[in-house]
Fold:
Amino acid sequence: MPLLKNGRIAEDGWALVEDGQDVPAAGPVAVSLARLKADHAVLLAGNRPVGVKLANADDPADLLPWLERLSLVVLDFPKYTDGRALSQSQLLRQRHGFKGEIRATGQVLRDQLRLMIRCGFDAMVIDEADAEGVYDYSAHEFSEFYQSATDTSDTIFVKRQRAREAKASQ
Structure:
């Protein structure tokens, strides 16, 4: 499945290391939260990028001791109906100030891409033949939003209120 970064297919240089597997000697690695907690001294001692894969039940606040050293957080969508990763992404961006890459994996669907972008995801693994075309369409499909997110787009409610205030001041 292709990895999309900023709407374009990108090479994935990250090794996602499962618990119990040996960590490669070099190159960027991403591990589970449990492994990061257990092996953080060894993982972060080198000069290579380190990432973590959070399960939906994991609290992003658990990453705070290492957040500044992490380059990647992978958030999983185990089912298309499970949106907890959207909340995790917003918490990482808004509350915890994470500046690294946030990647969506699992059941990433085309109709969720725009909301993922608005919630702070900058990369996603999507099972689509024309992944770039799907991204371009999804990223620009809607121009108005009901819910606020991590981006700077005003919601339809904010725009409506401004219009009322402008009309009242005339």
Notes: The chain has a mean pLDDT of 86. The first strand starts at residue 3 and ends at 5.
